[in-house]
Amino acid sequence: AIIDDVSAVDYCWRIVLGCGAIPGIAALYFRLTIPETPRYTMDVEYDVNKATSDITNYLQKTDTKDENEEPGNHVDVPKASWSDFISYFGKWKNGKVLLGTSMSWFALDIAFYGIGLNNGIILSAIGYADTHEADLNLRAYNSLKNMAVGNIIITIMGTVPGYWVTVALVDKWGRKPIQIMGFAVLTVLFIVMGAAFNPLKEHSIPAFITLFTLLQVF
């Protein structure tokens, strides 16, 4: 169908953006209404009696004890400070965990968004690149439709299988081994794809797409 006005596209992305806020609002509602954990009650609210009552109720799976039956026993627990942070993570056995976690996430972001820079090449190769119709309305509609369908295909090719393979195997293999395996394979694939980027793009698009898909999987 041909849209009557390119401005309708503007309405579409605003509607899509607004619909995306609905799950966030629902999550916010449940977060504001869910009972706090005993750990939070003790460490932040300093209410030991309420935390003890919550733990007892959870373990007994009953609600026989009202959390308001006893007055709160508030204790003066010192708040965490930057000096506490430095003192704790200044020790290598603790700091290495924070460093390793943050650097792994940093490296993952570089890989993930770096792969995404090639989406245009893949969309063009599979026939879902921008269109060149003379009619501006038709061009806007078809361009957005092609990008939407093309990105769905790209996601189904690599990202979705990668997620579900991990879901199925992470408890069997372990989180550390599967992460090391992922980084190791990505290292090899990035070296191959980086070294042969132009030849692959110019002479072997199927191989380029295969490597691109494997990058998304891992």
Automatic annotation (TrEMBL):
GO CC list: membrane
Primary localization: membrane
Cited Pfam families: Sugar_tr
Highest taxon listed in the record's lineage: Eukaryota
Topology versus the membrane: Multi-pass membrane protein
GO molecular function, one term: transmembrane transporter activity
InterPro entries reported for this sequence: MFS_dom, MFS_sugar_transport-like, MFS_trans_sf, Sugar_transporter_CS
Transmembrane domains' residue ranges: 13-32, 106-128, 148-170, 177-197
Protein localization: Membrane
Domain Major facilitator superfamily (MFS) profile: 1-218
Keyword line: Membrane, Transmembrane, Transmembrane helix
Protein name: Phosphate transporter
Organism: Rhizophagus irregularis
Top-level taxonomy: Eukaryota, Fungi, Fungi incertae sedis, Mucoromycota, Glomeromycotina
